[in-house]
Design goal:
With about 200 residues, the chain is of the alpha/beta class. The chain is about 60% helix and about 10% strand. The protein binds adenosine monophosphate (AMP).
Length: about 200
C-alpha cells in the first residue's frame, strides 16, 4: 500500500502515520523527520536545510525529492509506505509520480486531514505548553510565530497539492479535528474500500 497523508502542520498526520505503520507493517516516510535527522547529523543537506526549517519556510523541492527518491528505493519500502509531509508542492507531487512510474508502481490513496486553521493554532500552542510542562524542549518550528509561517507556507504552496490528487481520483477527505480514534476509523474505512 502506497499512501499519502495530506494536511497542514499539526493536523495529526504523524499520529495517524505511526498507527498505520503498526497496522500495515510499512514504513512512515516523513521528510520533516529525515530533514531533522540530517540537521542533527550536520550532513550537507542538513546544513543547507537548517535555517530554512527554523524559519518555517519550505526546503527546496530538489532536496526533498532527492531524499524521497533514495528512501523509497530502500528494501523496507518495496511493499509500500506512508508519506507524511511530502509532497508539499505540485512540483514534488509530479516528481513523485515520475519516480513511481519509472518503477511501475502506483499510489493507492491521498488522504487529507481537513482542519480549521484557528483551532489548529490553539492545538499547536497547547502542544508547546505540554512539552514545556513535561520538561521537554519545544521544537523551534512549533513556536507559535514560526508555526504561523508554516501554516502560511501550507496555504501558499501545499494547498494546491490537494486538487492535484483530486484530479487523479486519489483524494479522500477526513475530518482532522475529530478525536484521534475517529480520524483513525475514518482512514481505516477509506483503506478498506481502496486497498
Ligand atoms: P514537518 O515536520 O513535516 O512539519 O516538517 C518540518 C519542516 O521541514 C518544514 O517546515 C519544512 O521546512 C521542512 N520540510 C519537510 N518536508 C518538506 C517538504 N516536503 N518540502 C519542503 N520542505 C519540507
Amino acid at each position: 500500500m502506497r499512501l499519502i497523508l495530506l494536511g497542514p502542520p499539526g493536523a495529526g498526520k504523524g499520529t495517524q502515520a505511526t498507527r498505520l505503520v503498526e497496522k500495515h507493517h510499512i514504513p512512515q516516510l516523513s521528510t520533516g523527520d529525515m530533514l531533522r535527522a540530517a540537521v542533527k547529523a550536520q550532513s550537507p543537506v542538513g546544513l543547507k536545510a537548517k535555517a530554512v526549517m527554523d524559519s518555517g519556510a519550505l526546503v527546496s523541492d530538489e532536496i526533498v525529492v532527492g531524499i524521497i527518491a533514495e528512501r523509497i528505493d530502500e528494501p523496507d519500502a518495496h511493499n509500500g509506505f506512508i508519506l507524511d509531509g511530502f509532497p508539499r508542492t505540485v512540483a514534488q507531487a509530479e516528481a513523485l509520480d515520475a519516480l513511481l512510474k519509472r518503477k511501475g508502481k502506483q499510489l493507492d490513496a491521498a488522504i487529507e486531514l481537513k482542519v480549521d486553521a484557528d483551532r489548529l493554532l490553539a492545538r499547536i500552542m497547547r502542544r508547546a505548553e505540554e512539552a514545556r510542562a513535561a520538561g521537554h524542549a519545544v521544537r523551534r518550528d512549533d513556536d507559535p510565530e514560526v508555526f504561523k509561517t508554516r501554516l502560511e507556507a501550507y496555504v501558499r504552496d501545499t494547498a494546491a497539492v490537494t486538487p492535484y490528487y483530486a484530479r487523479s481520483g486519489l483524494l479522500r477527505e477526513v475530518d482532522g479535528m475529530a478525536p484521534i480514534a475517529e480520524v483513525s476509523a475514518a482512514i481505516d474505512a477509506i483503506l478498506t474500500v481502496r486497498v
